[in-house]
Design the sequence.
């Protein structure tokens, strides 16, 4: 039994006068204790919505529908009532967000923002809470923590803010930590610091981590298992080495081909994915990636492809996956559209 | 294996294109886009309908009124004795009855619509013109930078702050006191009140536009400063100003009424204007409250129309809501 | 204060009358007052030697029981009531009368400013030593206390004003002790910045049925209480409060909601409705005149009497009176109300006749006449409840006979008054007059006895006749002269008298005992709550 | 903080300086000039000339301006031409009433506006939301004096629930200390006097509150909606805080920032509103006094009023900014 | 076109922004030294890449180079012409030869202009194209070059996707036929898949048109991918400049080393093997830069001598230029890195204080 089992999670937003958005469309993955799981994908593929749905943090507005299950330690987080969910949030499952400045309350000192978690979940008050908060800040590498407690977010640099956010998240030693693009807003050198800190925390406390990012490099260094999302669905799941060594889904292949590698030589052309994320085929009508896919065949349209598990412990959602080295391509990529806007 | 049914292929292409834009349509500018959004907003439609009616009445109404708006028929015929508290109410002949001077209220309401519109529009235009001038100069100087530019800007803005520090009423009163009571005075007084609002708005919006990347882009293209100001900065700064002008129209009508109430309005009540009618009706509230209620309701509804439309425009033009 | 109120609650509210007035009094010493609210308060706290009959204008005994002129008509002997005490306990006697008159007569410095002692200057002209050479010599000459209850007032000449003018509250008797104690004649400051002494602001001390208690500027209330030692009939009310509510509608609403139990300056339109609701609306006899003034200097055409006659015939005064004035208003035939002796029913009358007006204009060659018509804004006067409306009607009438009208609306004070009473930039305008006391000279004399910018004419025979009337000591002869004068004026037609309108005053449904006075000399001491 | 206050007070100087120039010009441009304003209708040309000499109107303009400024600095606002009392004294007597009224209006506007705006935002799109948005639209569009009349006609005249005029029942004998009637009543333990004074504030307070109330409802609603969508609220939720803590500590406090700014801006408007409301309710305050002065053309009073208003406006905004810096630490650093 | 001809020469370029503060009228209380003495040469037809942390002055350098921000000091020579001394009118004429591409494709396009007018604006400004048809032709060619369809002309920016908008931005720059293009973060706002398209496009255009690029980005991998020479900036100055292949294989400056080690590579093997040089703390404020070597407060190799006192200048070491006193000894392994304690860095003030200034314009008025 995994720590978190997300099963067929789907989120739709519908609003009058606008098309219904299937932001998350049957996502399933699981996270074991102590494991680091990555969710990767381009902007708009549903990463954040997935994590928010698990946390029960989606904006409460009419027209938002959540389906499926997210079983954490035996309880389905989706069906939970508000009260018990609040009990679990911050204590057993914690979350870190992308933009550290806007994610911190600008008018409340850092100290209170940390201690309020301790008060809420660990019943700590006054000096005890302050001391614990200072310890936490110290642990995430904020210098002179006692003084920082009285300061406000705007007085800290970006990196320090993110550290403070992490301190709040790990205050109650959660068993699951979800980090939604925790380093996107930061410089590489700071990103390296934060990633290192996260790794350390996970290693030391055995917390499971769901790492959401669009940066393949980040997952390559951190995650044990990686789920690639496209158009609200997981299109490929694999342990990290096989995934990077032999990506099967054309989208994963495309992603890897799109990013220049620091260690590669100069002059090689990148192989971009044509089209843009806007060119989505609704999943029920086939593979959402089909309009941009270089390996598209007729079977891609009509029936949505199922997740296909393979012998080496991974699975992908494709009828014409990229070949493993040595095997023949199933179909030549002749269906590529001549005049692509790309 | 390579059998491709044309049907399926079409479908892909169709769907792919669905996401992109189609060839046959012309582009939709932001104004058009905003207008589309406006049309979908029920508040905007209510506001627009009210205003359309108002403008229609104001423009063509006076040609169709049954009686002269300044003709004291009731007194001539001896039926109105307001001095003795006798002001007949609605009848088949006089749909809204007589006013205290024995004039036909319905005719006055209709003719008054035109005057009211005139007061609202002219005073807003005065405020807009002066405010936009000050704000435009300040904004341009601030955007231009340099010691001089900053100095001009802060001097103008200090002046505007000063106007802002005066309550609108006092400002209007001062103007009215200076110029003496007349219709022109009312329009100027009400207009002056909105000067600081327009000035600040335009300046702020111009400065933020001047700092935007596309202005930098135009500069790097080698476009002249004056041209940039005219083709980029000003047009992009106008949206909030237009919204504000619509909202100001609403307040202008109310403010004109308040000035009349304080006795600073147009003293010539032979020109019917709703604010003047409302003020004139005060002594007769006890006898015929309707005399006050007609113009008051008309003012409220019209102001509401302008406000609804203005708010809806604000929403429609808001870049935050743009998608 | 708490114990005070304990009494109050026991004594039921029925002996406290809150009366709504339109403005704060300016000053509590009536010597310095000219505004109605100061005078209203003074009439309750002070008394004068002679006073108007209740509800009329006749001269009746006040603090003086009787008065007689000497043969020349210049010295008047007043026999005073005895046993009268001022509110501070001192006695009222002949001595006190002289102290009062000498105080006014010997005014110095700022007290000679027309702003400070308007009525004295109006009636008496000047002072013992005029500081301004422009001031006329004083009519008052001296005061002699013959014994405790007999006093002689000597005047420099015979005047129609005496004794009627002595009814004015400005000639109220003050306690000499209080005058001295509170420095009553020390008017300090500068002409632009007059500072009244504490007597005039806090310690008015008279002999009237009510004593001054407090003036709460912050709450805009002036509280008077019953003078338990009053020599006459004691006031029925224990407390009388004047509460300032400047807005006419607000006064009406306050009456309806029970905040106040009466108010003055009732809008004409409200008279009937209030009556209908059962309120006690009192209509004062019309003691005023509204007229259309014609300035013969303003437009040379106006010097032609035919043009003035045309204007008079053009005006539908009856329609105006019917529609705009309160019930009881009348079209004026003279420049004074018919209740004043000297009124003449036998004068030239100008009926509403547009045709005749047009003919007269044609005759005078003034077919293309454009007149600057001044009218005041933001004001209601007893004779003119709604100037704007009146203007509109009159102006429509004039236009109907082909006279073009250029409307010039002006603020009542000071613009309108300035513009219409000085210079010659005005053609026609309307104004009015409310009588101060019941003598015809107070109306027509004030208007036509000398050249005035308001009218722009000089008519020596007319002026001389006025002079003669003023100095005629014999009452009967004087009245005859007044009648002649009225006829002369209406023939000469310097302007068009329009109307007399009765101002109304209203009391609560359960308030009785007050009689309306043409001189606004209502006596609140007789007011009581019926129950 | 101290520097901030000093800075703001110093900023007052150019504003007042500019105003003084405007006022000076205004006073000189009066129809007929200042001497007419003083003399009124009784002036003769000689008297006018004398006054001109007295007032030094024949001196160079800069000298005159200098004297004008000196008088302003000494708070010598001259004498009211209509009441013949010093403008400063008049104001001191009437100011408390206006303060009481505006405070009452502000209490109503804030006390009702913020909760209503908050609830409307929480129940976005539901009946309450529509009602409060619609109501606030009407509140903005209804002329204040008309609303005042309506309130008075209904609640005072017809229903008789509230008094229709004045600041206190004149039959109550109340001791005056500060001229703040409610305060005086409390200080002297004349409870009935205090209660009556408070009672008299209700209707005018409501009328005066209409616009600020409407604006506060709208701003609060918009601001709460915006804050509800902020990332840090999500963070707070993610921490599992109770709804109560999230609302109070995270949402409301942040949502108050724009509301606080708008309250400062409304303060100036309230004084304008007081002119209308006090007139209708015969409420003895600066507003009614000014309305009378308008019709009497009492320029010294109007001028004094403008100066006082400008100072009050700046001071109120200073207070608002200070309170702002209490809520928002980002402002504090400067 | 000769190989290695220098098109742009930058000498000791400085851009200092005044920090103003004041009670009534603002006075200058200090300077943000956004660019503080930069020397660099860009050969014609080549790509010069500029990397560095956020706020280190990259964009400012780019703008100052194009004279869009007036430099405080130093010299910029373009094709032998000194731009810093040029009269504004002449400079406008020069702009035709040097263009800019912006980071945010949305905010750099006027939302009220359609694509056609965006593209013709520059043509008008320089009087290019005799007739309307001529201009149309130029525009069409440009559209083809950047891969935008013809129908795009009548459309407005908001109707395009991010990648397409960036293409419009590129087209706007290209339409004038410039020699130099300064691209400020041309791809950082784009999705990874789109990013590659744009990078390829830039490459292609350079090949076809012989353009010279100054590419600014904080993503080292991207910069290295498209650049011939890469300059690394730190707090307003270049700390290292090297041919792009050398930069990864042999970083000489400690900062460059740290930077290289911090960039994640999408390859688990590399990631697992990599030894991270973690820098302590944050970038110091450019308003108050550290003395001596700007980097010494965070440098794991900082030495007690020289580093804090003496500001190192760029020195040629092999094919690279480095501004480090100890570069050789670090490279040889003689000096070992040591632990550095993070110093707390205060972020710069963010915007004006709110208050009365931000008057909301609400309806409703008493008058
Ligand atoms: N509240 C909402 N209402 C409507 N649509 C929404 C809402 N929230 C998200 N979406 C849509 O759902 C889709 C997925 O959004 P999501 O935020 O999960 O993407 P993401 O993968 O996190 O992207 P990014 O990398 O930009 O953060 C997007 O198309 C977005 O527009
Ligand atoms: N107009 C300006 N006025 C004042 N300071 C400025 C201005 N423009 C930039 N700065 C400051 O100069 C420094 C360098 O800014 P610049 O934009 O060049 O950095 P950058 O390297 O491009 O950063 P990023 O990667 O975030 O774009 C920053 O500290 C910035 O705050
Ligand atoms: Mg996201
Ligand atoms: Mg930049
Ligand atoms: Ni009461």
Sequence:
């Amino acid at each position: 039994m995994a720590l978190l089992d997300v099963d067929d999670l789907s989120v739709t937003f519908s609003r009058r006068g606008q098309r219904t958005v299937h932001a998350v469309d049957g996502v399933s993955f699981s996270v074991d204790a102590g494991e680091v799981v990555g969710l990767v994908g381009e902007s708009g593929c549903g990463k954040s919505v997935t994590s928010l749905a698990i946390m029960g943090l989606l904006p409460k507005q009419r027209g938002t529908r959540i389906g499926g299950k997210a079983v954490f330690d035996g309880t389905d987080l989706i069906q939970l009532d508000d009260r018990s969910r609040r009990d679990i949030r911050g204590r057993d499952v914690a979350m870190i967000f992308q933009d550290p400045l806007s994610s911190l309350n600008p008018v409340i000192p850092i100290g209170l923002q940390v201690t309020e978690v301790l008060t809420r979940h660990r019943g700590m008050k006054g000096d005890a809470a302050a001391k614990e908060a200072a310890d936490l800040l110290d642990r995430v590498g904020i210098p002179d923590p006692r003084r920082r407690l009285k300061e406000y977010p705007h007085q800290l640099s970006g990196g320090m803010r993110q550290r403070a956010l992490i301190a709040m998240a790990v205050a109650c030693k959660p068993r699951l930590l979800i980090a939604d693009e925790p380093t996107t807003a930061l410089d590489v050198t700071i990103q390296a610091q934060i990633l290192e800190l996260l790794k350390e925390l996970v290693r030391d406390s055995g917390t499971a981590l769901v790492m959401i990012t669009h940066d393949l490099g980040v997952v390559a260094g951190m995650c044990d298992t990686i789920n690639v999302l496209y158009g609200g669905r997981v299109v490929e799941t694999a342990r990290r080495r096989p995934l990077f060594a032999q990506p099967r889904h054309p989208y994963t292949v495309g992603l890897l081909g799109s990013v220049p590698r620091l260690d590669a030589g100069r002059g090689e052309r990148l192989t971009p994915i044509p089209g843009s994320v806007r060119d989505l085929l609704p999943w029920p009508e086939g593979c959402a990636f089909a309009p941009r896919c270089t390996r598209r065949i007729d079977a891609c349209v009509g029936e949505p492809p199922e997740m296909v598990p393979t012998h080496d412990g991974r699975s992908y959602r494709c009828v014409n996956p990229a070949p493993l080295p040595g095997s023949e391509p199933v179909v030549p990529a002749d269906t590529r559209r001549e005049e692509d806007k790309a | 294996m390579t059998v491709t049914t044309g049907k399926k292929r079409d479908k892909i292409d169709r769907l792919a294109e669905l996401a992109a834009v189609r060839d046959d349509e012309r582009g939709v500018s932001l104004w058009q886009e905003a207008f589309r959004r406006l049309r979908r907003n029920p508040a905007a439609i209510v506001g627009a309908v009210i205003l359309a009616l108002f403008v229609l009445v104001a423009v063509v109404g006076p040609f169709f009124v049954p009686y002269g708006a300044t003709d004291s028929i009731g007194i001539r015929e001896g039926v109105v004795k307001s001095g003795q508290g006798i002001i007949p109410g609605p009848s088949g002949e006089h749909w809204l009855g007589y006013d205290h001077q024995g004039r036909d209220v319905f005719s006055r309401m209709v003719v008054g619509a035109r005057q009211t519109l005139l007061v609202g529009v002219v005073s807003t235009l005065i405020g807009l013109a002066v405010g936009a001038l000050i704000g435009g100069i300040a904004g341009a100087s601030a955007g231009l930078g340099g010691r001089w530019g900053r100095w001009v800007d802060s001097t103008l803005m200090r002046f505007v702050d000063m106007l802002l520090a005066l309550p609108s009423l006092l400002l209007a009163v001062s103007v009215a006191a200076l110029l003496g009571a007349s219709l022109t005075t009312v329009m100027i007084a009400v207009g002056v009140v909105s000067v600081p609002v327009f000035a600040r708005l335009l300046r702020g919006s111009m400065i933020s536009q001047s700092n935007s990347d596309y202005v930098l882009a135009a500069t790097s293209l080698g476009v002249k400063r004056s041209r940039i100001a005219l083709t980029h900065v000003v047009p992009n700064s106008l949206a909030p100003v237009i919204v504000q002008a619509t909202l100001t129209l609403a307040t202008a009508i109310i403010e004109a009424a308040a000035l009349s109430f304080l006795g600073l309005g147009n003293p010539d009540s032979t020109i019917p204007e709703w604010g003047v009618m409302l003020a004139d009706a005060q002594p007769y509230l006890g006898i015929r409250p309707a005399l006050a209620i007609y113009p008051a309701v008309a003012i409220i509804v019209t102001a509401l129309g302008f406000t609804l439309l203005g708010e809806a425009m604000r929403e429609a033009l808001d870049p935050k809501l743009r998608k | 204060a708490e114990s005070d109120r304990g009494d109050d609650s026991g004594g039921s509210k029925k002996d406290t009358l809150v009366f709504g007035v339109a403005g704060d009094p300016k000053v509590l010493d009536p010597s310095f007052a000219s505004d109605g609210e100061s005078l209203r308060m003074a009439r309750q706290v002070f008394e004068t030697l002679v006073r108007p009959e209740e509800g009329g204008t006749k001269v009746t005994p006040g603090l003086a029981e009787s008065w007689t002129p000497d043969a020349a008509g210049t010295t008047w002997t007043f026999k005073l009531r005895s046993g009268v005490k001022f509110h501070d306990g001192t006695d009222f006697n002949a001595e006190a009368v002289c102290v009062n008159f000498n105080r006014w007569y010997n005014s110095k410095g700022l007290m000679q400013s027309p702003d400070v002692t308007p009525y004295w200057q109006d009636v008496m002209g000047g002072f013992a030593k005029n500081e301004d050479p422009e001031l006329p010599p004083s009519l008052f000459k001296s005061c002699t206390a013959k014994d405790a209850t007999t006093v002689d007032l000597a005047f420099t000449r015979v005047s129609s004003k005496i004794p009627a003018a002595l009814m004015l509250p400005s000639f109220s008797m003050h306690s000499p002790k209080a005058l001295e104690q509170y420095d009553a004649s020390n008017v300090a400051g500068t002409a632009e910045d007059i500072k009244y002494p504490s007597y005039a602001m806090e310690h008015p001390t008279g002999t009237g049925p009510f004593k001054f208690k407090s003036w709460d500027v912050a709450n805009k209330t002036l509280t008077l209480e019953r003078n338990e030692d009053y020599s006459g009939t004691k006031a029925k009310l224990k407390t009388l409060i004047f509460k300032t509510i400047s807005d006419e509608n607000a006064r009406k609403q306050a009456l309806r909601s029970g905040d106040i139990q009466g108010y003055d300056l009732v809008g004409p339109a409200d008279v009937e409705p209030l009556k209908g609701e059962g309120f006690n609306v009192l209509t004062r006899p019309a003691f005023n005149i509204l007229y259309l003034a014609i300035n013969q200097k303003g437009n040379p055409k106006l010097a032609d009497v035919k043009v003035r006659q045309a204007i008079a015939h053009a005006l539908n005064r009856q329609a105006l009176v019917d529609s705009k004035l309160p019930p009881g208003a009348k079209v004026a035939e003279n420049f004074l109300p018919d209740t004043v002796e000297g009124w003449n029913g036998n004068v030239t009358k100008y009926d509403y006749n547009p045709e005749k007006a047009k003919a007269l204009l044609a005759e005078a060659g003034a077919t293309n006449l454009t007149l600057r018509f001044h009218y005041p804004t933001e004001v209601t006067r007893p004779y003119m409840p709604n100037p704007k409306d009146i203007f509109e009607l009159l102006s429509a009438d004039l236009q109907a006979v082909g006279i073009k009208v250029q409307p010039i609306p002006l603020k009542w004070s000071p613009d309108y008054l300035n513009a219409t009473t000085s210079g010659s930039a005005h053609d026609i305008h309307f104004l009015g007059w409310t009588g101060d006391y019941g003598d015809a000279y107070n109306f027509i004399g004030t208007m036509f006895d000398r050249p005035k910018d308001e009218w722009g004419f000089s008519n020596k025979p007319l002026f001389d006749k006025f002079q003669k009337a003023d100095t005629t000591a014999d009452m009967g002869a004087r009245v005859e002269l007044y009648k002649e004068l009225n006829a002369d004026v209406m023939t000469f037609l310097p302007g068009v008298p329009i109307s007399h309108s009765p101002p109304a005053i209203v009391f609560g449904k359960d308030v009785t005992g007050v009689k309306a006075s043409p001189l606004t000399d209502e006596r609140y001491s007789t007011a009581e709550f019926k129950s | 903080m101290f520097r901030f206050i000093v800075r703001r007070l110093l900023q007052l100087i150019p504003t007042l300086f500019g105003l003084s120039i405007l006022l000076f010009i205004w006073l000189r441009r009066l129809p007929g000039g200042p001497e007419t304003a003083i003399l009124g209708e009784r002036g003769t040309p000689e008297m006018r000339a004398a006054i001109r000499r007295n007032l030094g109107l024949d001196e160079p303009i800069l000298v005159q301006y200098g004297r004008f400024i000196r008088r302003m600095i000494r708070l010598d606002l001259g004498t009211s031409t209509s009441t013949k009392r010093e403008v400063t004294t008049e104001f001191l007597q009437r100011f408390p009433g206006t303060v009481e009224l505006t405070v009452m209006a502000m209490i109503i506007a804030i006390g009702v506006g913020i909760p209503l705006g908050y609830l409307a935002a929480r129940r976005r799109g539901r009946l309450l939301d529509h009602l409060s948005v619609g109501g606030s639209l009407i509140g903005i569009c209804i002329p204040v004096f008309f609303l005042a009349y309506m309130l008075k006609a209904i609640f005072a005249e017809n229903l008789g629930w509230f008094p229709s005029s004045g600041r206190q029942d004149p039959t109550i004998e109340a001791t005056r200390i500060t001229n703040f009637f409610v305060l005086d009543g409390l200080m002297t333990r004349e409870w009935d006097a205090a209660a009556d004074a408070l009672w008299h504030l209700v209707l005018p307070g409501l009328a005066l509150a209409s616009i600020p109330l409407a604006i506060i409802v709208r701003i609060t609603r918009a601001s709460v909606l915006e804050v509800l969508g902020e990332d840090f609220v999500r963070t707070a939720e993610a921490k599992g805080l109770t709804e109560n803590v999230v609302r109070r500590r995270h949402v409301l406090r942040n949502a108050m920032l724009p509301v606080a700014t708008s309250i400062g801006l409304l303060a100036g408007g309230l004084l304008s509103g007081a002119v209308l409301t006090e007139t209708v309710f015969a409420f003895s305050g600066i507003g009614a006094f000014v309305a009378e002065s308008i019709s009497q053309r009492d320029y010294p009073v109007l001028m004094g009023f403008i100066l006082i208003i400008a100072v009050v406006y700046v001071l109120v905004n200073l207070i608002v900014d200070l309170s702002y810096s209490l809520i928002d630490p980002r402002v504090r650093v400067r | 076109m000769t190989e290695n001809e220098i098109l742009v020469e930058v000498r000791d370029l400085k851009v200092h922004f005044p920090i103003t503060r004041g009670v009534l009228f603002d006075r200058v209380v200090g300077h943000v030294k956004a660019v503080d003495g930069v020397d660099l040469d860009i050969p014609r037809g080549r790509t010069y890449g500029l990397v560095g942390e956020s706020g280190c002055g990259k964009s400012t350098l780019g703008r100052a180079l194009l004279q869009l921000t007036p430099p405080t000091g130093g010299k910029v020579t373009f094709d032998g012409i000194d731009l810093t001394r040029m009269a504004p009118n002449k400079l406008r004429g020069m702009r035709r030869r040097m263009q800019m591409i912006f980071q945010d494709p949305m905010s750099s396009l006027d939302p009220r202009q359609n694509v056609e007018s965006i593209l013709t604006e520059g043509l008008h400004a320089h009087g290019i194209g005799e007739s309307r048809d001529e201009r149309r032709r130029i525009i069409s060619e440009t559209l083809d070059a950047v891969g935008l369809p013809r129908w795009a002309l009548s459309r407005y920016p908001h109707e395009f996707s991010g990648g397409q908008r960036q293409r419009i931005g590129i087209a706007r720059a290209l339409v004038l036929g410039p020699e130099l293009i300064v691209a400020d973060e041309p791809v950082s706002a784009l999705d990874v898949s789109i990013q590659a398209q744009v990078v390829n496009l830039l490459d292609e255009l350079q090949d076809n048109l012989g353009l010279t690029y100054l590419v600014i980005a904080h993503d080292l991998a991207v910069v290295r991918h498209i650049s011939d020479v890469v300059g690394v900036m730190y707090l307003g100055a270049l700390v290292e400049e090297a041919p792009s292949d050398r930069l990864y294989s042999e970083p000489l400056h400690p900062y460059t080393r740290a930077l290289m080690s911090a960039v994640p590579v999408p390859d688990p093997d590399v990631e697992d093997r990599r030894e991270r040089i973690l820098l302590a703390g944050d970038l110091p404020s450019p308003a108050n830069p550290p003395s001596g070597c700007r980097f010494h407060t965070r440098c794991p190799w900082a030495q007690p001598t020289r580093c804090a006192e003496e500001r190192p200048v760029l020195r040629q070491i092999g094919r690279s230029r480095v501004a480090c006193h100890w570069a050789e000894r670090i490279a040889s392994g003689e000096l070992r890195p040591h632990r550095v304690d993070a110093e707390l860095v205060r972020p710069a003030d963010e915007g004006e204080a709110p208050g009365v200034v931000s008057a909301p314009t609400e309806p409703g008025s008493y008058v």
Remarks:
- The longest strand of chain A covers residues 21-31.
